[in-house]
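Quick log. Single chain, no ligands specified.
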Amino acid sequence: MELAFNLRHDLLPIFQEAKAAGQTMGEGLGRSILARHRFARMWGLGDRKNPQAYTPALILLEGDPEVDAKLAPFSSTSSTAIPSMLTLNGRLPLCPPDFESIGPSYEVSVGHVLPPSLEEADAGEAAGTAQLLPVSWQRLNHDDSLMEPELLPDVVVLVDALQLAAQPGRLVEAITVLKRRFPGALLWTPGLGGPDNVALLTWFGVDLFDLSRSRQAAAAGVLLTAQGPRHCVPTMGEDASMDKQVQQWESSIAEVRAAMASDQMRALVDRQSLNSARSVEHLRRHDAHCATVPGLLTSHVARTHSFPCHSASIQTDPLIADWEAFMSESYQAPDGLDTILVLLPCSARKPYRLSKSHGRFIRAIGTSACHEVMVTSPLGLVPRDLEEVWPAAHYDVPVTGDWTGDEKARIERMFARLVDRHQYKRVINHSGMALKHPSVAIVDTRQGQGAGSHEALERLTEAVRAAVDEFSARGRKNERMLLDTFASVARKNMSSDEWVADLKVRGKPPRYRLESNGKQVALWSIDRGGFSLSKAVVTTLADTKALPEVHLKEGVTWKGDIFGAIVDSFDPSIRNGADLLVYQAGKVLGLARAHAPGWEWPTTPGRLAKSHQRL
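-> predicted structure:
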């Protein structure tokens, strides 16, 4: 059975039809995104200039204790009649335009909800369609009205989330589907959340939670903590009261908000997923779904951003798969540098060349005629020319000298593809990992010794000298090396490197200027591991189609940043942080920098891209 709304649908026409019909976000709830990580969001609720509350947040149900409205900005009731009515009421002034009265207030019919196992059946009594949108597995399978362009709810409720969690793959599939279809809506999964999985569910895209599991824990005399349920410790003054249960929620939600603000959500999620085997399963399935979503991953990050790779579960992260796919299918070594390949171990310090060990390697190699590639986990292979880009310059992995089966398999796959796609005549392996390929001779310079040992470095020097002499490989001047690196970065993060070809490099490291006919066209920004593009290069970027495009509606004046209301069409593959070409009526106007990935354009409230350069 295929979902009525499923991942094979192209969502772009839906968004465009909604805009053509004059549809906007629902007016019942003010909200703005303050932080985003893939599907996870920290929303400010109410006036975006002065939010009254933030997500993740709680919804109070009948019988719940009184909780501060800042933590629980909503309350909800449901009737006992069949089909039941569901209400959701704000406990703070969250409604535009004045944000003075308490609200919003919603009521909707839930309809007949059959068990997810009966997916072939149609419940008959359809759920209501309103700003509060109840959705079940059956509705996803049978209700085509979910694809109506004008349907843009404020809050989506996955009413059978608890049942879906018990069936392999269905929970994360349903959540991913709903987040892609309704990126501007808050998502609630009743009865599913707790202090022990709030980070995990937030990572999946859930925004609102309730105290159902905590009430069950209190009735059973146990405390539901961030590590799961446990017996109370009376000597520590603990008890299973709802006040203590709510304190656990407060602590866990604070952890999530702090991780969102510091870009450490994935690390927190990895730790929390270990609370149960089911959570690990959900995370792995979620990673697999994420790999299929265009534009989900980030293009650039701040210099201070880190990518912790401390757990085995990071091996399934879609960022790893994305890097492997690029290196295996798209990566191209700098021109003329695919004769001699030198494989080196990684280093804890990034970029690698700044480490003491790589300083010794570079001196031992003694020439710029070789293509240097690092062997590392979890990324597999990282070329020297891409050592400053995300995520190669940001990952942090424990170094033990041991390789898991997954790590070895990834490196072997990537090495085979790298050799197959280039014309290497000699591979000098100083990485310490045993690698083979039928079409090229491989020289092991480690021979079981440490990479920095005197003997191993001497063998590295001798092997490089012999290969350079045998194949008459020529070194490159410093400016050529820099241009080769910038061209590689352009091929990684842009659609073309043609605009780099005839540039000159000026300035001192690490802040280089790229110039054309004496005019600066770009700066190398170490703060974002990419280019800061100038107005002078905009038309060249447009001619070479080097960047994703955003087309504005005709008749609107582009004064500030880009919001959904002025967008006519866009490239759905846009990644957060990417530079964009801005067009109107077929004419390029300038550049912008994406603040939202393409999957949530343009129905998400707030700024989608920040103006960068204008002609």
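The longest strand covers residues 587-594.
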